[in-house]
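Worked Example 4.2. Consider the chain below.
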Amino acid sequence: MGITTKDLAQMCGVSRTTVNRALSGTGRISPDTKERILRVAREYDYQPDLLARGLVKGRTYYIGVVVLDVKNRYFAQMLSTIGAEANKQGYSINIVLHNNDRQMEQNQLMKLSAYHMDGIILSSVNEGEEYRRFLSTLGMPIVSVDNKIADGLPFVSIDQKKAMKEETALVLKKGYRKVVFVCPPMDAGVKENVYVHKERLKGFQEALQEFPEAEAEYLLDWSYLERAELLAESGEKAAFVCTSDGFALDIMKRLESRGKRPPLDYGITGFDNIDTLDYVKPRLSTVSNSVDTVAATAVGLLMNMIEQQADEQTEEQHEICRILPYEIVPGETV
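Applying the procedure from the previous section yields the following structure tokens:
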């Protein structure tokens, strides 16, 4: 059994309060005393009792993270950064998946609440004011990422519309006069929160307004691979503007099997800048949605809210929206 703060106090000839000040780096304590306590703690491999500390402060030192799945490299990267940033703050993470199921997401959130998470980072498939009210009943700070749920809930993302508008404009400036917007999640309609994809659609359409001579087509359901193949075989060179790198890579794979490669036979762009792209040739042109920065910002915001909660934070402190910079990542596919 490891030593306790009581043991450290006896060994160093000081009070437990002084030991706690040395270990936490807070309060008034002489440098010599602090160094002596820390040295003894290292020598005897002192490990803090997180359960006891949590009981004192009314915390579990866990945050919940709710995302679609971990097969998507975007979410895998996000979870990695959230875990690392939370660890810096002395927290662990509890990951649950909703698999695009609205009721499953709600059930997972209620479980996290029952386990007394100190806060939650949520990439939601639900949306609307009614759902925001449900979230407020869970009694813990919540930060949403990417898909906006409703006004009044802390939210972290990039400017999705502006990013897609810039990417589409760059494609059109390359001389393509037929652009194909690829976004199968739009097939979900009102069944899912597709805020991110709706914003990207708006950006695509705004870019087209500046190029009236361009022709647009839309692949908005899960038959997009078959339709992309037909378009590529039509003889007219088109550019596929995809709302995710995954969709773009699937199209590239399908068309490669038909002997067609970008940018010779068609153009194509993605969105997300997932790490897998480092291993794909030709290198996909895409948008970096700053996943690491979004994740780190969400953790920092949540930690501030957890600290403020102890001080009875006001409703106004929930009105936080962080829109972060994105980056166009040139590739070799347009």
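The CA atoms of residues 237 and 316 lie 52 Å apart. Residues 313-317 have pLDDT under 50 and may be disordered. Compare this with Example 4.1 before moving on.
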